[in-house]
Amino acid sequence: MYRNSLVQEYHNFDSQFILLANQSSSQFPKLLIYLLTKQNIMNLFTYQSQYNQNTNENHLFLPSFLLRIYLILYLFLYLSENDIGDFGAKDLGTAIAQYKNITTLTLELYWNKIGQKGAYYLGTGIAQCKNITTLTLNLDWNHIGAIGTQELVTSIAQCMNITILRLNLSWNYIGDYGVKYLATVIAQFMKVITLTLNLENNKIGAIGVKHFVTEIAQCNTITTMELALGENDIGDEGAKHLGTLITQQNNISTLTLDLYSNYIGDEGAIDLGTGIAQCKNITVLKLNLDWNIIGAIGAKDLITGIAQCNNITTLKFVLGYNSIREKRAKNQDQVKIWPFN
User: Fold this and answer.
1) 134, 149, 137: which is closest to 182 by C-alpha?
2) What span, in angstroms and rounded, lies between the C-alpha atoms of 146 and 169?
3) Helix or strand or coil: residue 146?
4) 229: alpha, beta or left? (left if phi > 0; alpha if psi -120 to 50)
5) Pairing mode, if any, of strands 57-60 and 21-23?
6) d(Cα 137, Cα 166) in Å, to the nearest integer?
7) Residue 167, phi then psi, degrees to nearest 5
8) Smallest Cα–Cα separation from 30: which of 100, 89, 75, 97?
9) Of 291, 217, 301, whose CA–CA distance to 258 is shortest?
10) 12-39 core/surface letters (b: 16 or more CB in 10 A; e: else)
11) pLDDT in tens, 278-324
12) Roughly what angle, to the nearest 10 degrees, separates helices 145-156 and 116-126?
């Protein structure tokens, strides 16, 4: 055993592998490549390293029993709140690219100082996995920007079998152009039925939403749509564009819109209500309009629109911190309001 070796204890790889490492998180992608090139694994789970503030070390643990299975189909990597950066992302992309049989890929990489180059490397690796049907990618609190977004999703677009797509790009400052690139690529996925996008706090305005709507409107296969745009600046115009998009998505049965803190007023609320009213197949509706500037009139028309969806069985509706106050909308008493989650 070598004291400074990344693998401290390595016996028979087929029967037992024990990792007791105190290594920098930036070295973990190299360990992953080492493992994956030694033997195939059906389910590989890497547990999020625990940061020790006293010793400034990360402790990694990989269950030995997972190393007895021979074919990767599902890959889950939880490496959030580390410091892998662009170079670590490059190593991860290289490792992922080697396993072309993956059908389900989950990468939890939020808060990792990943930039434009790292996004490119990750996308290049994922693009080699043509059999992916479910992709979950969390890059929250990194700094990939608009160009990084373009390079990431352009590569992912080569995985044409994706039916469930979940992307969290919040707090990445992708802006209007980033949203445009993202939507243009998503429109190419002709098999997507579940689309979940978290784009909170990304300096997105009405123009970005317009680009998004124009492209996503082409996705007629979507039945579940979850869109988080909180803490942007879409305003009434952006809300109007979203209402238009909703009108065109006749197959949606589950709709979640998280639009808190977006300067949406009465006009925007009315347009949202008009759009929702056209989706007669909705059974689950979650709508968060917290911290906007909606008044009594906007709230009334919004609820009136929702009331036309007679098939709704689950409704979560938040209108806190708006301008309704004592002027309660006439129909608001008919709607029970739940905490949004």
Assistant:
1) 149
2) 11
3) helix
4) alpha
5) antiparallel
6) 6
7) -125, 125
8) 89
9) 291
10) eeeeebebebebebbbbbbbbbebbeee
11) 999 999 999 999 999 999 999 999 999 999 999 999 999 999 999 87
12) 0
Nearest to 179 by CA among 117, 131, 241, 118: 241
pLDDT at residue 241 above 60?
yes
3-class state of residue 176 by DSSP: helix
Residues forming a β-bridge with 178: none
Question: Rounded to whole angstroms, how far apart are CA atoms 169 and 149?
Answer: 8
The CA–CA distances, whole Å, from 151 to 154, 197, 201 equal 5, 17, 20
Beta strands in the chain (DSSP E): 9-10, 17-18, 21-23, 43-46, 50-52, 57-60, 74-78, 104-108, 134-138, 164-168, 194-198, 224-228, 254-258, 284-288, 314-318
* pLDDT at position 221: 95
Angle between helices 235-248 and 266-277 (to 10 degrees): 0
| pLDDT band with cut points at 50, 70 and 90 for residue 56 | very low
Structure tokens at 187: 């429109």
Q: Which two tokens stand for residue 171?
A: 């707090």
Check: CB of residue 268 under 8 Å from CB of residue 246: no
Residue 271 host element (H or E): helix 266-277
Ordered by where they begin, the domains of the chain are: 1-164 (3.80.10)
Cβ distance 9 to 19 under 8 Å? Answer: yes
Q: Two tokens at 214?
A: 């124009």
- Name 38's Cβ contacts closer than 8 Å, sequence gap at least 6: 13
Q: Is 268 exposed, middle or buried (0-12, 13-18, 19+ CB in 10 A)?
A: buried
Tokens of 303: 């609820």
